[in-house]
């Protein structure tokens, strides 16, 4: 097993989306399409939120060699590990990830939102679990 850091992204950090160039360009060692279990919501704020659930969320696994990547990603996602969870916008946690044939690939990091926050932001379920910037 390599020492790479694997992060599942499903919104603005996906290749081609608004935050990829600023946070990931030139830092990604590898990437591959993947899916996870969960539900994806359009928050009407220019980005989505994913919660645990029984649906499928489509995204990309980005692999990084620099552990400092979390400094930037945590800031973007308004996550501080030592802050009470309700004060964070997202929670960074490890979740199981699958290839497009639903074969397990192991655990990766992902940023999940609490359903309470999704409701505060008037989140609308994205039935196919695939978010694209709607600008």
From TrEMBL:
GO terms for molecular function: lyase activity. It comes from Planktothrix pseudagardhii. It holds the Pfam family GGACT. This is Gamma-L-glutamyl-butirosin B gamma-glutamyl cyclotransferase. Residues 7-132 form the Gamma-glutamylcyclotransferase AIG2-like domain. Its EC number is 4.3.2.6. Gene3D superfamilies: Gamma-glutamyl cyclotransferase-like. Keywords: Lyase.
